[in-house]
Specification:
This protein is an alpha/beta fold. Helices cover about 40% and strands about 10% of the residues. The chain has helices at about 1-10, 20-25, 30-35, 40-55, 85-95, 100-110, 135-140, 195-205, 230-240, 265-275, 305-315, 320-330, 345-360, 375-380, 385, 435-440, 450-455, 465-480, 485-490, 505-520, 525-540; strands at about 155-160, 160-165, 170-175, 175-180, 210-215, 250-255, 280-285, 335-340, 365-370, 395-400, 500. The strands form two sheets. The chain has an eight-stranded parallel beta barrel with strand order 4-5-6-7-8-9-10-11, surrounded by six helices. A three-stranded antiparallel β-sheet has the order 1-2-3. Strand 2 (about 160-165) and strand 3 form a beta hairpin. Helix 8 packs parallel to helix 20 and helix 10 (about 265-275) crosses helix 12 (about 320-330). Mean pLDDT is about 80; it is low at about 1-145.
């Protein structure tokens, strides 16, 4: 009956074929077998197949007829497997509900059709028999429901700065945000309270920004006189200066990670942040790093998961269920609007999302990680995939977009190439000129001239990283922009990035960042420039995690005592 119903809609079982974009269009014999004459027609035909793959949850890019894949043989004409049954049954269900494919196709033709956003697609290149349209009712029948609000959509532009949707929430965040790690801290160039307020005035009241990121642990570094929590107090004192400021600002804060993350502490620490900020709600509440062990959670060069350590450490940590239950309670109480995790990966995002679905509470709305033109790890380790609207629809906040200041061009790269001595001095720790290194340490240009930070952030100064930076600097010069502008505009143009968190030690630095993001809002980087960036990336894919200095006696211990690799 279901088959007859589907055939009555003009969708015959023999027309169910499965393919992938790459292998089919690349294979002339397969194109010929399907009656596809040229590459353009092949691409359009593949769009149809990809659309059908999406409809039944099949992975895109699976090689059709692959001898090693799970989907072997699905690309053959007339093939029919049990996994096609949901497609047929849901199509018949949609027909019973009054959403006839044939009538939808007719409406598509009458309205001009051919647009996925209108709920239909017309194939003008194949045989006279038309590929049926896939309507919203069809997707509803498949269990997909109505189209959801997608993360990273541009919702508004304010003073030249774009605002993007964060996850599936109703929050639209500026794609440049204020990072506050060192506000009110002990560093030589930590912004004091007066400068912090100037940065808020310029960014929020004048510049079009509406997002600030902080943490209960900030400032870093802290001291007895400038303790943890001081940064939140500085933000709170700015909010109290004038009624209505809270409504102009979205605030993200973080609970200290690791063993501190418990159901009780998530509630208590959130309330502590609310008191220091002088507000009744946080817009986003994040774990500063995961409760469980994961290589993602440190600032070193760890990438490999330690199975033995994980067996013990993960068992002792709070579960995803405990975390989302506490976050759900805070949402229910109106104390937060959304939550997520910092310094985590796809495991953390999907673990929280699955636990939230099981418990009937809202899922995470965003993640936050180290990301830059030098460190595209999230795009290749599964977090970008998991965050996409196709899966968890989660926003992403990028930090260290300027690689700890290394992408600003104020430090030399110490690579030994001709003419390098005429440029700026390398970071003090890397400078072979001892007298000059001492001078840099006495009058530091930034964190990289101070031994503590220079060791902590040494991943940004591996030889591989410096070689990549040299290539990016030359590329930026060729296209008439600074290294910093290239790095900022690159981040602004990435589909996985919702917002970039930038720390500033002067209003002039903030103005430079505002200019770069206003330029980004006017148009994307030149396509050839984007490809040249990718070419550099392909030659040097994970420069932050390369290390040519490891000694024979290091025995899996990295530069900052982290486990490597």
């Amino acid at each position: 009956g279901a088959v007859a119903g589907v055939q009555s809609l003009g969708f015959c079982v023999s027309d169910v074929r499965w393919c992938s974009l790459g292998p089919l269009t690349a294979d002339a014999s397969r194109r010929a077998a399907f009656g596809i004459a040229d590459a353009r027609a092949a691409c359009q035909y593949d769009e149809q197949c990809l659309l059908r793959q999406s409809a039944v949850g099949l992975p895109r890019g699976q090689p059709s007829g692959s001898s090693h894949g799970r989907f072997r043989g699905w690309s053959q004409p007339g093939s029919f497997t049990v996994l096609a049954l949901p497609l047929i049954i849901s199509s018949y269900t949609a027909a019973i509900r009054g959403h006839s494919r044939r009538s939808n196709h007719r409406r598509c033709l009458e309205s001009g059709g051919g647009h996925l956003t209108s709920g239909c697609r017309i194939d003008k290149t194949r045989r006279p028999r038309r590929i049926p349209c896939i309507s919203r009712a069809f997707f509803s029948g498949m269990g997909f429901g109505e189209a959801k609000a997608e993360t990273n959509q541009v919702i508004d532009v304010v003073n030249g700065i774009r605002r993007r949707r964060l996850g599936s929430t109703d929050m639209a965040v500026s794609e440049l945000a204020l990072g506050t790690q060192r506000w009110g801290g002990e560093d030589f160039n930590s912004p004091n309270e007066a400068l912090c307020h100037q940065l808020l005035d310029r960014g929020v009241l004048e510049g079009g920004l509406n997002l600030i990121d902080t943490a209960e642990q900030y400032p870093i570094p802290s001291s007895r006189e400038k303790p943890e929590g001081r940064t939140e107090e500085i933000i709170g004192s700015w909010l109290r200066k004038e009624p209505g400021r809270r409504e102009k600002l979205l605030i993200a804060s973080k609970i200290t990670g690791g063993q501190n993350v418990t159901k009780q502490n998530i509630i208590a620490d959130c309330e502590g942040s609310l008191r220091r900020l002088g507000t009744d709600r946080l817009d986003v509440y994040l774990l500063h790093w995961p409760a469980r062990y994961t290589p993602q959670s440190n600032w070193g060069q760890s990438l490999e998961y330690d199975w033995e350590y994980g067996r013990e450490a993960v068992r002792q940590a709070s579960s995803f269920g405990d975390i989302v239950e506490a976050m759900g309670k805070l949402i229910e109480q109106g104390k937060i609007r959304g939550y997520g995790a910092c310094n985590d990966n796809a495991v953390g995002l999907m673990g929280m999302a699955a636990a939230a679905r099981e418990r009937g509470v809202p899922g995470p709305c965003c993640m936050q990680n180290d990301y830059s033109i030098l460190n595209r790890r999230i795009e290749e380790n599964g977090l970008s995939e998991a965050s996409s609207p196709a899966l968890e629809n989660s926003g992403f906040m990028a930090y260290n977009v300027l690689a700890g200041g290394m992408l600003t061009g104020k430090y030399g790269l110490n690579l030994g190439f001709a003419g390098e001595s005429e440029g700026p001095a390398p970071a003090a720790l890397d400078d072979e000129d001892e007298e000059r290194a001492l001078q840099s340490n006495r009058a530091p240009r930034g964190r990289m001239d101070r031994r503590g930070w220079a060791l902590t952030l040494i991943r940004y100064r591996t030889r591989a990283a410096r070689e990549a930076m040299q290539e990016y600097a030359a590329l930026a010069k060729r296209y008439g922009m600074s290294s910093a502008a290239l790095a900022l505009r690159f981040a602004a143009g990435r589909p996985a990035v919702t917002t970039s968190l930038l720390g500033h030690t002067s209003v002039a630095q903030l103005d430079e960042c505002l200019e770069a993001f206003r330029d980004a809002a006017k148009g994307e980087l030149d396509p050839q420039l984007r490809w040249e960036i990718d070419r550099i990336h392909l030659r040097n894919r994970l420069p932050l995690f390369a290390n040519d200095r490891t000694g024979a006696d290091w025995r899996n211990e990295g530069e900052i005592n982290e486990r490597i690799p």
